[in-house]
Write a structure and sequence with these properties.
Blueprint (H helix, E strand, L loop, with lengths): L26 E9 L4 H10 L5 H12 L9 E6 L1 H6 L10 H5 L5 H4 L16 E7 L2 H14 L4 E10 L25 H5 L18 E2 L7 E12 L1 H8 L12 E2 L5 E2 L2 H7 L42 H5 L17 E2 L2 E4 L14 H5 L7 E9 L2 H15 L1 E2 L2 E2 L36 E11 L2 H6 L6
Antiparallel strand pairs: 1-3, 1-4, 2-3, 5-6, 6-11, 6-14, 7-8, 9-11, 10-11, 12-13
């Protein structure tokens, strides 16, 4: 399995874009299709002849853009197939072997805590194929997506055209609809990305590609990856009410004192997430830090907080990435996933077709109960032993390999999610009264996919007889 990949590595020619490194485009359309019965040959011919974006082309364009050789990195196109997609194309024998992938996301609804009755109609039946179209120009992305919809009409039915676009905070970092910095800590596989980390004194995001890549059955030196897609709707109004941001509506959260003993109204919410809204980790500070120039801190672990009095065990970022195996469970890095999500806004909460720096005033002035959220996507080498463990056990049960923490994930945890506590003061043992804080995110549908190698896709053009 390749590690610490260089830009010149020939394997990049056969890995699709967006796997080893996020596509980095501001706008994206996620097109979901069901193949038409009896049209498998047409479908395979089109898939095999389309110019899907390789990791090599994506990364080369990025380097050229950074050096000023080009002004636009251009569009990104990727294709992923579900288990039913392989079957309907007559490719069952070439299907990758993860059992959760083979059964599909609905079969894991009990483990994941999903209520499929809440799912969008598009995900009610089989979803065979997902095509991602991404570009920095909103209108161009829309046009390119429309072209693909037209081209596939002879062999597939469009189920959904789900648009997404990035939200950016001051300084350019990503932000999600609840108002917190997002997408900060990501596994790194490329030598240049690994070397360019600002500091790695406590934490290094360098990750073994065995956590990500899967060899094709026909070409062992060609690699793909399993893709999980989930449309996670965020009830912004309820979240902000519960945080205490909408007086006179009372907060569900206790007031936590900062290290100086003074009450900090933002600290409780930050400890639930694990970071303040601008990304300051609560394990490092009891107040929001604003360095100039602004940068989001990621070089930290929990070795100074083994009792979880600065960042609770049940905080979102600590549950989802325990870092350096600081839990009683030991090293759980094998479960780490590679996130590639993007916010969505079906109700135009934020002005469409342009990327606006998101301010507190903009977020506080428009708090939808539905229609906005995150198009959660992650890549991994095993859905069963990575994503499903993280969602089904870590988030839903607060159970990390036998270490049962004192609460489930308040953001994405499903199920009863019983009351939890926070320290009355940062880094002090006395705990608050129990409180309830959950139920702000609903899954509106999704599916498990596999994103095959470029070589596999091109080979489909000759599998038409």
């Amino acid at each position: 399995m390749p590690t610490n990949i260089q830009l010149t590595d020939p394997i990049l020619d056969n890995i699709q874009a967006n796997i080893l490194k996020g596509h980095g485009r501001d706008f994206a359309h996620h097109l979901f299709f069901q193949f038409t019965k009896g049209q498998a040959l047409k479908a395979k011919k089109w898939i095999g002849s389309f110019a899907w974006t390789s990791a090599k082309n994506q990364l080369t364009a990025t380097e050229q853009f950074k050096s000023g050789k080009i002004t636009d990195g251009g569009p990104i196109f990727t294709l992923s197939l579900s288990s039913t997609g392989y079957d309907r194309l007559g490719l069952t024998d070439l299907k990758p072997g993860d059992t959760s992938f083979d059964k599909g996301m609905k079969s894991s609804a009990g483990l994941l805590g999903d209520d499929t009755a809440l799912w969008d109609e598009a995900f009610g039946g089989p979803v065979d194929m997902m095509v991602l179209v991404a570009d920095d120009d909103s209108k161009n992305a829309k046009t390119l997506a429309a072209n693909i919809i037209s081209q596939t009409a002879g062999f597939a039915t469009l189920l959904a055209n789900q648009r997404g676009n990035v939200l950016k905070m001051k300084g350019g970092s990503g932000i999600e609809h609840f108002g917190y910095a997002d997408g900060i800590s990501q596994p790194l596989y490329l030598a240049g990305d690994i070397a360019s980390q600002p500091s790695t004194d406590q934490w290094n995001d360098e990750t073994d590609t065995a956590r990500l890549l899967v060899s094709d059955k026909e070409e062992p030196h060609h690699f793909g990856s399993y893709l999980v897609f989930r449309k996670l709707e965020q009830n912004v109004k309820a979240f902000k009410d519960a945080e205490g941001d909408n007086p006179p509506i009372p907060s569900n959260l206790p007031t936590v004192k900062a290290v100086d003993g003074k009450p900090n109204q933002e600290l409780a919410g930050a400890m639930i997430v694990g970071r303040f809204e601008n990304g300051t980790p609560t394990v490092q500070s009891s107040i929001e830090l604003n360095p100039n120039p602004f940068s989001v801190t990621n070089d930290f672990d929990y070795s100074s907080d083994l009792s979880a009095l600065k960042c609770p065990f049940h905080s979102h970022i600590r549950l989802m990435n325990p870092r350096n195996g600081d839990t009683i469970a030991g090293d759980v890095s094998a479960q780490r996933i590679t996130r590639r999500g993007i916010p969505y806004d079906d109700v135009q909460r934020i002005p469409e077709d342009r990327i606006t720096t998101i301010s507190d005033d903009l977020l506080d002035g428009n708090q939808p109960k539905e229609g906005v959220g995150l198009l959660f996507m992650c890549y991994q080498s095993s859905i069963k032993t990575q994503f499903e463990i993280m969602q089904g056990f870590w988030a839903n049960e607060g159970n990390i390999a036998g270490h049962v923490v004192d609460g489930q994930d308040s953001l994405i945890g499903r199920g009863t999610n019983p009351p939890k506590t926070l320290p009355k003061q940062w880094d002090q043992p006395a705990q608050s009264n129990p409180f309830s804080f959950h139920g702000f995110v609903k899954n509106k549908g999704g599916e498990y996919f596999f994103t095959p190698s470029i070589g596999f896709l091109r080979g489909l053009a000759i599998k038409t007889t």
